[in-house]
Design goal:
By secondary structure, the chain is mainly alpha-helical. About 50% of the residues lie in helices and about 5% in strands. The strands form two sheets. A three-stranded antiparallel sheet has the order 1-5-4, with no helix packed on it. Strands 2-3 form a two-stranded antiparallel ribbon.
Length: about 625
């Protein structure tokens, strides 16, 4: 058994490193590293606009080249078989745009062979086809038209844009503008990739289409909207433009996301804006500000500053660092400054609540989310006991959090009750994940953990009782839970178990026993835990042949709520964590999900945050 002294020695090292890396404004600024998509989008946009950013483009292209596999493909995660078709097409086209590679290069010929072997451009993800269409490389279908009169519908309409998730909405509207306008930014310098077609082009592949009464009804209603008078569509187009402009953050980005910012620029160009427009120039500047060092330079989709700072402030306090220490004081003062004060789109379905949540990034002021809010509330709870401004912030944040509970008892990510089941029937890839903001085990579990361990709530509280019932009813047959924003079943199970235990569900409850048994059964021989990103794609647990620090920490944290720390599974897990003998692959494997099969994230902070929490909980566990 490991002594508390041995564990404290490891914790002391982590705390010292965090002290050294904190910025003077109280933040920790780790890279939020995603797939090549954001780098490719940036290169393609700069190319289309003819903007001279040779240094940035060169660095982005060098990163793309550095992560190409020996087979010529691009992967989203280490164990992805062969490669990822859409990512490979994105990188291939972006490299040609950057002039860092030519079609005749050996590595590009390999990529070409792979793309063709997988069915060519027609088999790519819709978003990849979209970017190619904007560049004149993929034909807009003649039947493609999204009636902009849809923006004139009342907010409570089932077809309202507010019936879909905010993340889908902020991309759908500019993409619809581009498609309706048939924008093509092809020029003499645009690379031609028509040789990558192996079958006739189609924006929507037949395999996407789910024949159902609901999807048929949706298409019927769209046709009705399309029949509205022309002036209604023109009003809708103006409303779409205003919708985008009203949601631009102070740094010029749309909703603080790189992807939506790129699509917004294309939409504004389709509406007649010039590349010299102040709005477009500020958007480009904002996009560049999202860069971080990662094998040259990487464009983050959205910096994780608030998320990382909140989690680290909490983790350090869990490790015994007092809230009065300057490191925590600075972090919490920063978090206080980032609490939202604006009424964003979340008010559509939750109109009678004051702002009080937190968002993911430093520049985000209008899209608070449940995860960041609970993280910030954990961090400031101790400070709020003695300082009035933090007491006010805590009260506002907790009220906002409780008001966001879905009618089914769980918690969503961003917006309340945006979970209509018919959306999953639409002919769009990942429709269920993208279009719906349903209750999830990770958000519900983390909210319960906060309410139980920090706000003093227990299972008798009506809202807690609803959430507990939701979790129990949504447990998988094998005892696990699916987590939406982490990889995946280990993440969801950790969140659910720690949340249920925090509000008083006993360790011998059948749902806890099943979950603990499942976690023990999937432990790797090296003592740790690992799960493949493929779990998110097939919606079942897919083991990794190696363990990762963050997933191991999640599993340990869950086990420690219900087991003696002398148990072998916990001891070998701790051994894995404190050995620090991780391979590069173990250390960099993405354990965050953005979109199954398309967007996974490597949080550079996670291998510090979650081991620190697990090790601290190990010490706090009595036996």
């Amino acid at each position: 058994m490991f002594s508390n002294e041995e564990i404290r020695e490891e914790i002391t090292t982590i705390v010292h490193d965090l002290h050294e890396t904190q910025y003077t404004d109280g933040t920790w600024r780790f890279c939020f590293e995603g797939p090549p998509l954001t780098d490719c989008y940036t290169i393609i946009l700069l190319h289309c606009l003819g903007i001279d950013e040779e240094s940035l483009i060169s660095k982005l292209a060098n990163r793309l080249l550095s992560i190409q596999s020996e087979k010529g493909t691009w992967k989203l995660y280490e164990d992805e078989q062969d490669g990822n078709l859409s990512a490979t097409i994105q990188c291939y086209f972006a490299l040609l745009c950057s002039k860092a590679a030519k079609k005749s290069d050996t590595n590009m010929k390999k990529a070409e062979r792979y793309i063709k072997s997988q069915g060519g451009l027609t088999k790519a993800h819709f978003t990849t086809k979209f970017i190619l269409s904007v560049c004149g490389q993929y034909p807009w279908p003649t039947a493609f038209y999204i009636p902009m009169s849809i923006l004139m519908l009342p907010k409570f309409s089932p077809l309202s844009i507010y019936s879909i998730s905010n993340y889908a909405r902020i991309h759908f509207i500019p993409m619809a503008i581009c498609g309706n306008k048939r924008i093509s930014l092809r020029s003499e310098s645009t690379p031609d990739v028509s040789h990558l077609f192996t079958t006739p082009p189609s924006l929507f592949t037949q395999s996407w289409i789910r024949e159902s009464r609901l999807s048929h009804e949706f298409l019927t209603q769209l046709k009705k909207l399309a029949s509205y008078p022309l002036h209604i569509h023109e009003q809708g187009l103006k409303k779409a433009e205003k919708f985008l402009l009203d949601r631009i953050e102070s740094n010029g980005t749309l909703y603080s996301y790189a992807t939506s910012t790129v699509v917004m620029v294309f939409a504004l160009l389709a509406l007649g804006y010039t590349k010299d427009s102040p709005i477009i120039q500020k958007a480009i500047k904002g996009l560049k500000s999202l860069s971080c060092p990662a094998n040259e330079v990487h464009i983050q989709n959205s910096p994780s500053t608030v998320w990382d700072t909140a989690l680290l402030s909490y983790a350090l306090q869990k490790a015994g660092v007092s809230a009065d220490v300057l490191m925590i004081h600075r972090a919490n003062e920063y978090l206080l400054s980032r609490q939202h004060k604006k009424y964003g789109d979340w008010t559509v379905h939750n109109p009678n609540t004051e702002p009080g949540g937190w968002g993911f990034s430093d520049i985000n002021t209008i899209i608070p989310d449940i995860d960041d809010t609970t993280a910030a509330l954990r961090a400031i709870t101790s400070t709020a006991q003695t300082q009035h401004p933090f007491q006010v912030a805590l009260s506002k944040g907790q009220k906002w959090l409780l008001s966001m509970q879905n009618n089914d008892g769980g918690w969503p990510s961003f917006e309340k009750n945006v979970d209509q089941k018919w959306l999953a029937t639409l002919p769009i890839e990942n429709a269920n994940f993208t279009l719906r903001d349903s209750s999830t085990a990770d958000l519900t579990g983390r909210t319960l953990e906060y309410l139980g361990n920090f706000a003093g709530y227990d299972e008798e509280h009506p809202q807690v009782k609803q959430a507990v019932n939701w979790l129990i009813n949504n447990q998988e047959e094998n005892g696990s839970w699916y987590g939406k924003w982490g990889i995946c079943y280990i993440y969801g199970t950790w969140a659910a178990v720690t949340g249920l235990r925090a509000v008083g569900i006993q360790a011998n409850h059948p749902c806890i026993r099943k979950a603990i048994r499942w976690l023990k059964n999937i432990q790797n021989n090296d003592g740790g835990w690992g799960e493949s990103c493929r779990s998110a794609e097939v919606e079942r647990f897919v083991p990794l042949q190696f363990s990762t620090p963050s997933q191991t920490a999640w599993a340990l944290d869950a086990l420690l709520t219900s087991n003696s720390k002398m148990e072998r599974s916990i001891q070998t897990g701790i051994q894995f964590l404190i050995s620090n003998n991780y391979s590069s692959t173990q250390h960099t494997y993405p354990t965050g999900t953005g979109l199954p099969g398309q967007f996974y994230t490597q949080y550079h902070s996670y291998n510090t945050i979650f081991p620190l929490i697990a090790l601290s909980n190990y010490i706090l566990t009595e036996n």
